[in-house]
Specification:
Oligomer: single chain
Order of helices and strands: HHHHHHHHHHHHHHHHHEEHEHH
Radius of gyration: 56 Å
Largest sheet: 3 strands, antiparallel
Helix content: over 70%
Shape: flat
Distance between the termini: 191 Å
Strand content: under 5%
Strand order of the largest sheet: 2-1-3
Number of helices: 20
């Protein structure tokens, strides 16, 4: 059987193998380098982010600073240019003398500083505030510079205007003190000093100052000459002109010569008028005839005008004396109750019409005779009150002998109303309605006067009853009643008359209504539900319509 060989012993002896050194390939530190690079990258990214964050913060700060500076510039512009707050609109005295006593630059500097402080307080951090403070400081410097320039400019203008005022005051004094040599010298020196100062303020040349001096003095000299000429001192005016001729402009010389020529003409015509008035011993007609015969052109016109003025003045003086005498006479009469106490000199000085009116009034009252109103006088005075502007100056005492005491008071009150437009307008409106009735019914003379008297009395009574002024419709109702036709009762027979005539005569009046009035009243009653109104109902209705009692 086959035998499997066994190897109990090695066929070959084992030998030592050569010692071999294995060397691994050299590998780089990849992970470390990568970590290092990553760290460096992160560091760079962090720096970039920091810069971005810093830039963003700086930008945010700059936005706030820019906004603050915008507000600061707006505040500065407002304090410079605003129509109500801006200092450029403060001129002269307003810029130099402030209500609170501070100088303008101090006042407005404090205003801007307050605005800037408020703006700075609203910023978010110290960096913003410091940067704003630096930039706004420059703005403040600019503002103060503009403010200082404005004050200097206004001070210069104010100084100049003060000198201009000095010149004007001196000129005015020259016109007033034209005959006072010392005062004229003072005014002249003041003008010279003011003109020289104006030249200094504006930096003018000596020749320009000299020319300005003539311009400034010339009006004052012209005023002196004009005042002297107006006073009739023509010789003085001519002599003064010679003395100051070098200080007159050509235009002033021409005007002065015209003034002197006019003065010569006035003096000549004045002397001629005086001579004629004296020659004819105050007889104005003879003096005027003489002037028109022997003079011509402008001289004739001037002399005639002067003579007429003389006469007007004489008449005015005479009338004033007559009125004073009349006032005194009526006052003595009222106090004494008779004319015996009135001095003859006073009676002699009165106007003849006033004296006659006083005598007639005294005679009527001494006879215990009732003074009745003349309708014609009443009507004439009523028309004058509304149409004649001279009514307010009319001496109503001239009519006292033809006016009852009641009507005297009526016209005295009416005269007082002419001084008050609102009252006279009311009077005029009422009189227009009265006149319209007079015209439509063709009242004449005494009848017109009687109607006017009764109309005024009735209108006054109606006004008193209502406690106020009547309107047009109410006045017309009163007037319509007064012109109603009817009858007055007599002993033997009745008389036809109108209501106002019966009232004036003090007689009872029975109206006769027209057929047209009756028909209207009937229709009105029927509309009210009375189908068959009686005569009494119709008459009562018509009386109510016309206000007949």
């Amino acid at each position: 059987m086959p035998t499997v060989p066994t190897y109990d012993n090695f066929q070959a002896a084992p030998g030592a193998l050569p010692q071999t050194r294995l060397t691994a390939p050299e590998m780089s530190d990849v992970a470390g380098q990568e970590a290092q690079r990553m760290g460096q990258g992160l560091q760079r990214a962090g720096g970039e982010l920091g810069r971005i964050a810093l830039d963003m913060a700086q930008q945010a700060n700059q936005v706030r600073i820019n906004d603050a500076m915008n507000k600061a510039v707006a505040a500065k512009n407002r304090l410079i240019y605003d129509p109500t707050e801006g200092f450029v609109h403060l001129r002269g005295e307003a810029a130099l003398s402030r209500p609170d006593g501070k100088a303008l630059d101090q006042e407005y500097g404090e205003k801007l500083k307050k605005n800037l402080d408020e703006i700075e307080a609203g910023l978010g951090n110290q960096m913003q505030r410091e940067t704003f403070r630096q930039q706004s400081g420059q703005l403040m410097s600019q503002f103060n510079g503009a403010l200082t320039q404005h004050v200097a400019k206004e001070y210069g203008a104010f100084q100049y205007s003060v000198q201009e005022g000095t010149i004007q005051v001196a000129r005015d004094q020259m016109a007033l003190a034209w005959g006072d040599a010392e005062a004229l010298g003072q005014s002249r020196d003041a003008i010279k000093a003011a003109v020289v100062e104006q030249g200094r303020l504006k930096g003018l040349s000596a020749k320009q100052v000299e020319a300005n001096l003539v311009e400034a003095l010339s009006p004052g000299h012209a005023a002196v000459i004009a005042s002297a000429a107006d006073a009739g001192k023509l010789d003085y005016a001519r002599e003064y002109m010679k003395q100051v001729n070098a200080e007159l402009t050509p235009g002033a010389r021409l005007q002065i010569q015209k003034t002197l020529d006019a003065g010569d003409f006035e003096k000549r015509t004045q002397d001629q008028a005086d001579a004629l008035y004296s020659k004819h011993k105050g007889n104005i007609s003879s003096a005027l005839a003489d002037a028109r015969t022997n003079l011509s052109g402008k001289e004739e016109d001037a002399v005639v005008t002067r003579l007429k003025n003389y006469d007007a003045e004489r008449v005015a003086l005479r009338e004033r004396g007559q009125k004073d005498a009349a006032d005194q006479a009526w006052r003595i009469y009222a106090q004494s109750g008779g004319m015996g106490k009135i001095p003859p000199s006073v009676l002699a000085a009165m106007d003849g019409r006033d004296l006659e009116a006083l005598r007639r009034t005294a005679r009527a009252e001494s006879e215990a005779r009732e003074v009745k109103t003349d309708p014609n006088i009443y009507y004439a005075l009523t028309i004058a009150a509304t149409q004649d502007p001279g009514f307010k100056n009319e001496d109503l005492r001239r009519y006292f002998d033809r006016l009852s005491p009641t009507d005297r008071k009526h016209f005295i009150d009416l005269q007082a109303k002419t001084a008050r437009p609102e009252d006279i307008d009311q009077v005029a409106s009422a009189q227009q309605q009265v006149n319209a009735v007079i015209k439509s019914l063709q009242f004449k003379n005494e009848q017109a006067g009687v109607f006017t008297m009764q109309a005024n009395k009735a209108l006054f009574a109606a006004q008193q009853e209502k406690g106020r002024a009547l309107n047009q419709e109410e006045r017309q109702k009163v007037l319509d009643r007064l012109v109603l036709q009817g009858e007055t009762r007599g002993v033997l027979w009745n008389s036809n008359a109108r209501a106002f005539e019966a009232e004036a005569a003090g007689k009872p009046f029975v109206p006769k209504f027209s057929d047209a009035d009756v028909r209207k009243a009937t229709a009105a009653l029927q509309r009210a539900g009375i189908t068959k109104p009686t005569e009494a109902q119709i008459e009562a209705t018509l009386k109510a319509v016309y206000g007949v009692k």
